[in-house]
Specification:
The chain has 2 domains: about 5-235, Phosphoenolpyruvate-binding domains (TIM Barrel), CATH 3.20.20.60; about 240-285, no CATH class. The chain is about 45% helix and about 15% strand. It is built from 12 helices and 10 strands. It has helices at about 15-20, 40-55, 75-80, 100-115, 130-135, 135-140, 155-160, 175-185, 200-215, 225-235, 240-255, 270-285; strands at about 5-10, 30, 60-65, 90, 125-130, 145-150, 190, 220, 260-265, 265-270. It has an 8-stranded parallel barrel, surrounded by 6 helices. Helix 1 links the parallel strand 1 and strand 2 (about 30). The longest helix is centred in the last third of the chain and has 20 residues, at about 240-255. It starts with 5 loop residues before the first strand and ends in a 10-residue tail after the last helix. The model has no long low-confidence stretch (mean pLDDT about 95). The structure holds coenzyme A and magnesium ion. Coenzyme A (COA) binds near residues 11, 16, 21 and 35.
C-alpha cells in the first residue's frame, strides 16, 4: 500500500523549494506549473522541473507535476516539455468533465509513444474545484484507467460558486462530501483540500482530522511545516491500531468456530468493521507504525 497522506505543492520555478521538498519526509510533492507560476515564467518552470526530476534524489517521495488547465493551450507543452524527467504523475487542475481528463490522456499517450515509455505508465490526478466538476465528480472519477485520485480544491470551488469561506467550512461541506464519495464509488483515492492558515497548527490539525473522518486518504498543503501535522492526523493512533489488531484476531477466532457476527468488547462486530480494522492495520504497516500481536 502506498500512502498519500501529505501532498505538498511548490512553484515549479523555485529550484530552492523543490530541493527543500526533495529532502523532506513527505509522501507526495507537486511541482506546480499552474497558478503558482506567473504567466511569463512557465518555460523556466518547465526547465527547472525537468532538471529537478533528473538530478535530485526524492527518496520515497512520489513526484507529480501540476499542469495548466485542460481547456487551455499551455498543458500540452507542460507535458511534452517535462516528460523527459519521467514524473510519477500529472495533476490536472479545474477538471469539470470526463472529457477534460481524456484530453490530457491523449497527450500523455502521444508522449509515451514518442519516448517509448510504457503505455499508461504515467498516473493522472484530477483536481475537482469547479461547480461543474463537483456535479460531474463520478464520471470524472471513472474517466481513465490511469486516474489514481480525485482531489478537492475548496478555494477555487468557493470562488466558482460565489461562496464565502469560513473556518468551519459549511459552505464547502456538500462539495467536499461529493468528491470523496465519487472517488470511493469509483475505487480510487481522495485527497482533501489544503488549509490556507499558515499560523495555527490547531486549525490545520482539526481540518485534517475532519477530512480523514469523511474518508479522505490525505491532504494537500503548501508549507513544509504542515506535513508532520497532516501525517499525525491521517496515521492511526496507537490505541486505534491496538483495537484493530484485537478485533481482527477475535474475528479470525470466531471464523474458525463458524460465527460470522459476534460480540467484541461489548459491541456487535460484522464484516464492514473487520474490513475497516484491516485498513487501519494496513495503513499502520505502511507508515512503519508498530502493530502489536494480540490474542483473541
Ligand atoms: N515547498 C518547499 N519548501 C518550502 C515551501 C514549499 N511549499 N514553502 C516554504 N518553503 C521553504 C522556504 O524556501 C524556506 O526555506 P529557506 O529559508 O531555506 O529558503 C522555509 O521553507 C520557510 O519558508 P517561509 O519563510 O515560512 O515561507 P515563504 O515566505 O518563503 O513562502 C509561501 C510562503 C506560501 C509563498 C510558500 O510556502 C509557497 O510557495 N508555498 C507553495 C505555494 C504554491 O505552490 N501554491 C500553488 C498551489 S495551491
Ligand atoms: Mg487553484
Amino acid at each position: 500500500m502506498r500512502l498519500r497522506r501529505s501532498v505538498l505543492f511548490m512553484p515549479g520555478d523555485s529550484p530552492r523549494k523543490i530541493e527543500k521538498a526533495a529532502a523532506l519526509d513527505v509522501d507526495v510533492v507537486v511541482m506546480d506549473l499552474e497558478d503558482g507560476v506567473a504567466a511569463a515564467r512557465k518555460e523556466e518552470a518547465r526547465r527547472s522541473i525537468v532538471d529537478a526530476l533528473k538530478h535530485l534524489d526524492f527518496g520515497r517521495t512520489e513526484r507529480w507535476v501540476r499542469i495548466n488547465v485542460p481547456t487551455g493551450d499551455l498543458f500540452r507543452a507542460d507535458i511534452e516539455q517535462t516528460a523527459a524527467g519521467q514524473p510519477d504523475g500529472y495533476m490536472i487542475p479545474k477538471v469539470s468533465s470526463a472529457e477534460d481528463v481524456r484530453r490530457v490522456e491523449r497527450v500523455l499517450e502521444a508522449v509515451e509513444a514518442e519516448v517509448g515509455a510504457a503505455r499508461g505508465g504515467r498516473a493522472s490526478l484530477a483536481l475537482v474545484e469547479t461547480a461543474r466538476g463537483v456535479v460531474n465528480a463520478f464520471e470524472i472519477a471513472q474517466s481513465s484507467e490511469r486516474l489514481v485520485a480525485l482531489l478537492f480544491g475548496a478555494e477555487d470551488f468557493a470562488g466558482d460558486v460565489g461562496a464565502e469561506r469560513t473556518v468551519e467550512g459549511a459552505e464547502v461541506a456538500y462539495a467536499r462530501g461529493a468528491v470523496v464519495v465519487a472517488a470511493k464509488a469509483a475505487g480510487i483515492e481522495a485527497i482533501d483540500t489544503l488549509c490556507t492558515d499558515l499560523k495555527s497548527t490547531e486549525v490545520l490539525a482539526r481540518d485534517s482530522v475532519a477530512g480523514r473522518r469523511m474518508g479522505y486518504d490525505g491532504k494537500m498543503c503548501i508549507h513544509p511545516k504542515h506535513v508532520e501535522t497532516i501525517h499525525r492526523a491521517f496515521d492511526p493512533t496507537a490505541e486505534q491500531i491496538a483495537h484493530a489488531a484485537r478485533l481482527v484476531a477475535a474475528f479470525e477466532a470466531h471464523q474458525e468456530r463458524g460465527a460470522g457476527v459476534f460480540d467484541f468488547e461489548g459491541k456487535m462486530v460484522d464484516m464492514p468493521m473487520v474490513r475497516a480494522a484491516e485498513k487501519v492495520l494496513a495503513r499502520a504497516r505502511a507508515a512503519n507504525l508498530v502493530t502489536p500481536p494480540f490474542e483473541a
